[in-house]
Design goal:
six-stranded mixed sheet; flat; five-stranded parallel sheet
């Protein structure tokens, strides 16, 4: 066990006015399993890049381990998966070639073979280097690496046939598991795992959580609450003003966070009340001292010394009250720095004159000759919130495309009520570009309402002037969600809306949906979200 020590870290981008991190200090153990939590755009990925040494910063980061980032980009996607994994773990092929060369150099001149250079010193040096390489190879488990790879992939329930396929032919879910397995087989490294569940279905997430339970030495960026609870033992949270480390899983962190926030909010209200009362008392004391002082002037005969003493006493009391008020104000300034204010959102849910909105009877969908959805039946009634359940490749997105009017081959019966206005959130954000005002105009949105929704979803005002391509993954997804909330609709169809979305915004969405009770059909693999809002489930697993 060793420590990663962050001391007095300060960082800002050259183009930014404010610091992203300012005088941040904390320590973590390299055998911890850390969940990394924070609002979108707070700097989670930036911090991971600082650990990787990609940017210059003030302060220091001290570690005796190497940092590896997930997901990494394969330089050649045509490479066999087994070779990509081995190259990622260690330079085995390089060591093998050099060991072979060393063996050749150790062979002395032989009349029959004609090999070697006859130099004993060169042969000795080659043999010494061979020994060094062999030790490296053995220490990195080179002689049993393929066996270890197969064992690791077994834990992730990956079909071993993928090892002999080009990496580029694998599904996104398979790539996720392959890359993680390779990184965990490396020696003396600490993993920075950034959103590993985005391409995994429910079953895949469960498998991944079970896998990570048996691992140590990583920081995991994820917003899936159930997933975090299963596989972390510490929380690293980026707050509004600092970074904190806390022992426990997501649920224990959230409980402590809520307690601390409520405590500070209550204390803040009490201090506000105290300040108001002290202000009134100070004004009253000052008024009394003025009246007493004025009484020394006039025709009445008083003990002027006694009156002056009383006035001084009242003035002293007034100054004491004012001092206490200033202290209370300073104490108030120290509160609420990390309280996350989550605004209440609105939805423009249009009423529909009929109860039955969509109905499928014995519905099967096809891509060419291949059947992707088989003989499903369901009815979407007004007020239903239907989740499409199914493994990756089960046809969830294909069914959504059909409901949106795309040309998808099908058999069976499909009824979609005429006049339905549908608001759609795609899982794809790659097409987003340009300024927010141009995006709003392109979709006929009220720009003010659209940007207000984004602000309520914790968008900083300085983001409004940027090109959408510069946004983080979570911020791009919030653009699509804000569009959906800003437009009137009878049905809301959302395809994996929570990818990259922070936990605070997920709870915000849950509260919104439960309040407005829109008619919805959606795909989402966040178990907590599904359990909170779903009224019906359509299972597409064949």
């Amino acid at each position: 066990m060793s420590r990663i020590i962050v001391n007095d870290l300060t960082f800002s981008y050259d183009t930014a006015y404010d610091n992203i991190f300012e005088h941040v200090s904390f320590e973590i153990d390299t055998d911890w399993k850390l969940g990394f939590i924070g609002r979108n755009g707070r700097g989670k990925t930036t911090f991971l890049n600082l650990l990787l040494g990609k940017y210059d910063y003030k302060g220091s980061i001290t570690a005796s381990v190497d940092f590896d980032y997930f997901p990494f980009k394969a330089e050649d996607e045509n490479i066999l998966t087994i070779d990509l994994m081995k190259h990622t773990i260690a330079p085995f092929d390089q060591w093998e070639k050099e060991m072979e060369q060393c063996l050749k150099r150790t062979v002395t001149d032989d009349a029959e073979t004609g090999t070697g250079n006859g130099d004993p010193e060169s042969a000795d040096a080659a043999m010494e280097r061979f020994g060094q390489l062999q030790e490296l190879y053995q220490n990195h488990d080179g002689y049993i690496m393929e066996e270890l790879i197969e064992k690791e992939l077994g834990k992730l329930q990956v079909d071993l046939s993928v090892l002999r396929r080009p990496f580029g032919t694998l599904s996104f879910g398979e790539r996720t598991k392959i890359m993680l397995a390779a990184l965990f087989l490396k020696k003396n490294n600490f993993l920075l795992i950034d959103e590993p569940t985005n391409h995994l279905d429910m079953a895949g997430r469960e498998t991944m959580a079970n896998y990570l339970q048996g691992k140590t030495g990583f920081i995991l960026v994820s917003h899936d609450r159930a997933f975090l609870d299963q596989c972390i033992d510490h929380v690293l949270s980026i707050n509004r003003s600092n970074i904190e480390v806390q022992k426990g899983n997501y649920s224990s962190w959230k409980q402590n966070k809520d307690w601390q926030d409520n405590f500070e909010l209550e204390k803040n209200e009490q201090i506000k009340k105290d300040i108001d009362e002290l202000a009134v008392a100070a004004r009253r004391a000052m008024g009394w001292s003025d009246k007493v002082e004025a009484s020394k002037i006039g025709n009445h005969v008083y003990d002027r010394g006694a009156v002056g003493h009383k006035a001084a006493k009242m003035m002293k009391r007034a100054k004491s009250i004012e001092s206490r008020k200033l202290e209370a104000i300073e104490e108030k300034k120290g509160l609420l720095k990390n309280v996350e204010q989550v605004d209440e959102l609105k939805m423009n849910v249009l009423p529909f004159p009929k109860k039955r909105m969509i109905e499928a009877e014995d519905l099967s969908l096809f891509y060419g000759e291949r059947e992707v959805v088989s003989h499903i039946n369901f009815t979407l009634m007004q007020g239903d919130r239907v989740v499409l359940n199914g493994n990756n490749g089960s046809g969830k997105s294909t069914l959504i495309k059909l409901l949106l009017g795309e040309s998808i081959q099908y058999t069976g019966r499909l009824f979609v009520a005429s006049g339905l206005k549908i608001s759609y959130v795609s899982q794809d954000t790659s097409y987003l570009r340009g300024k927010l005002e141009d995006f709003a105009a392109a979709y006929g949105l009220d720009e003010t309402i659209f940007k207000t929704v984004l602000r309520q979803m914790d968008f900083a005002r300085n983001q409004f002037g940027k090109d959408i391509r510069e946004f983080s993954g979570g911020q791009k997804k919030k653009v699509l969600l804000a569009k959906s909330l800003a437009e009137p609709a009878h049905i809301f169809i959302w395809d994996e809306p929570l990818n990259f979305i922070d936990v605070f915004s997920r709870v915000q969405m849950e509260d919104l949906i439960l309040k407005y009770q829109p008619t919805m059909l959606f795909v989402e693999h966040d178990r907590a979200f599904r359990e909170k809002i779903t009224t019906k489930m359509v299972d597409l697993n064949i």
